[in-house]
Design brief:
The chain has 14 helices and no strands. The relative contact order is 0.12.
Length: 302
């Protein structure tokens, strides 16, 4: 009798009632969000996505801006990629930056979010209670990364053609040493075609659940903010690749570097010390110190 009682307890404690690929707490949390929006798909896809993007962008980049404006904490200054730039920030450039990013976030993003809802409804995408499994979320993320790399690389190269560069992309390159906020400092056409469309296209193609899209949006926004931040901080993504693009203009058009390698548009980067520094810093010694510029090394030898 005791044996049967213990067996019954163990049965209840097994994974028979638990789907480890769909954590219950995650489903409960998502259900609360869905009910908060009145179980309205249009509000979830459009307003919900807009709120998430706004919150991620401003929280991440106002943090970087506070460091740029105050110079504190002071120890972070040694992690700047371009040490002599933006010290202090140019007030006129910063004013234009805040105006443009404000317009893009407050007006262009909600329009794009509604367009995303229309595309999602056409594809039959869900935002309801039935969440995808973790393997499905990961698969959607992998495809989203691949699709964004392809679409961003070629659209980015396109707007570097002289006419389009002058009319559209030149604004983004006013910052030869970018800061976090500049990741969406762009002409509305560029913002829609080269930033937003590559971001969501992969998940639209895979008919993904909205939760997968939101996870990817946060990852992508934080990632591009770090790429534009101007700081190569410990244990974060390397900004060296895209920072080099802002400094040299005609190199490093992609995100992962795969298509740049394939097309040879990273040739100058590979010859530069920034290429050696283009890795996650797994310590506290700045890479500008452990991998110094050649000019600095030469001076020390002399």
């Amino acid at each position: 009798m005791v044996f049967h009682h213990v067996q019954h307890i163990l049965k209840d404690a097994t994974f028979e009632s638990v789907n480890i690929t769909k954590p219950q707490n995650l489903e409960l949390a998502w259900g609360k969000v869905y009910r908060l929006f009145g179980e309205n798909d249009m509000l979830m896809f459009s307003i919900g996505t807009w709120i998430l993007v706004m919150a991620t962008y401003w929280v991440t980049n106002l943090s970087f801006l506070a460091i740029d404006l105050t110079g504190k904490p002071r120890f972070l200054s040694k992690y700047k990629v371009q040490q002599d730039k933006n010290v202090p920030l140019n007030p006129a450039l910063l004013s234009r930056l805040l105006k443009t990013t404000g317009i893009n976030m407050m007006f262009i993003t909600p329009i794009a979010s509604y367009g995303f809802y229309v595309a999602a409804r056409w594809r039959g995408m869900s935002c309801g209670y039935d969440l995808p499994s973790i393997p499905r979320i990961l698969a959607d993320l992998v495809l989203a990364v691949i699709v964004e790399e392809i679409l961003f690389y070629y659209s980015h190269r396109l707007i570097h053609y002289p006419y389009l560069y002058k009319k559209i992309h030149k604004k983004h390159h006013e910052w030869t040493a970018p800061i976090g906020l500049t990741c969406i400092y762009a002409h509305p056409v560029e913002f829609l075609v080269s930033n937003i469309f590559p971001l969501v296209c992969g998940h639209i193609l895979t008919n993904a659940h909205l939760m997968s899209v939101w996870i990817w949006a946060v990852i992508a926004l934080v990632g591009t903010s770090i790429h534009h931040s101007g700081y190569h901080l410990p244990f974060t993504l390397s900004p060296e690749f895209h920072d080099f693009h802002h400094a040299k203009f005609h190199y490093n058009f992609g995100l992962l570097g795969i298509l740049d390698w394939l097309h040879g548009t990273d040739s100058l980067f590979r010859k530069n010390v920034a290429f050696k520094r283009n890795k996650i810093l797994l310590g506290i010694t700045p890479l500008s110190v452990s991998i110094p510029d050649k000019s600095t090394t030469s001076k020390k030898i002399k």
